[in-house]
Amino acid sequence: MTQRTAVIGSRSGLHARPASAVAALAANHPFDIAISLEGTDENDGADATSVLHLMSLGAQHGDRVVLHAEHVGAEEALDALVRELEKDHDAAQN
């Protein structure tokens, strides 16, 4: 199983705009990608392709989330998702 940790970069947390960007990126891969708040049971992870599941994590700015996938190419996919999660999607609004 491949795993990566990311720190939520958006000032307002993992709300609709960053969740949409992450879900769209995750949907480009033909395998399951799960995401959970660090310190929670990985079996309770959310589907990273679902905007609603991502938002339901309640991840705030600075929170750490863990991505999990098991497939060839998972390393690159998770690295790209980490970059997306660590962007400040709210900075573009100012």
Describe the structure.
The protein is an alpha+beta fold and 94 residues long. It has a single domain, classed as 2-Layer Sandwich (Histidine-containing Protein, Chain: A), CATH 3.30.1340. The protein is built from three helices and four strands. A four-stranded antiparallel sheet has the order 1-4-2-3. Helix 1 runs antiparallel to helix 3. InterPro entries: HPr (IPR050399), HPr-like (IPR000032), HPr-like_sf (IPR035895), PTS_HPr_His_P_site (IPR001020). It is found in: Cytoplasm. Keywords: Cytoplasm, Phosphotransferase system. It holds the Pfam family PTS-HPr.
Q: Quaternary status of these chains?
A: single chain
Q: What does the average pLDDT come to?
A: 93
What is the CATH fold-level name?
A: Histidine-containing Protein, Chain: A
Specify the biggest β-sheet.
4 strands, antiparallel
Gross morphology is globular
Poorly predicted regions = none
Distance between the termini: 39 Å
User: What proportion of the residues form beta strands (DSSP E)?
Assistant: 15-25%
Helix amount, in percent?
25-40%
- CATH 4th-level superfamily: HPr-like
Number of domains: 1
The second-level CATH architecture is 2-Layer Sandwich
Element-by-element helix/strand order:
EHEEHEH
**Helix and strand composition category:** alpha+beta
Please write the CATH class name: Alpha Beta
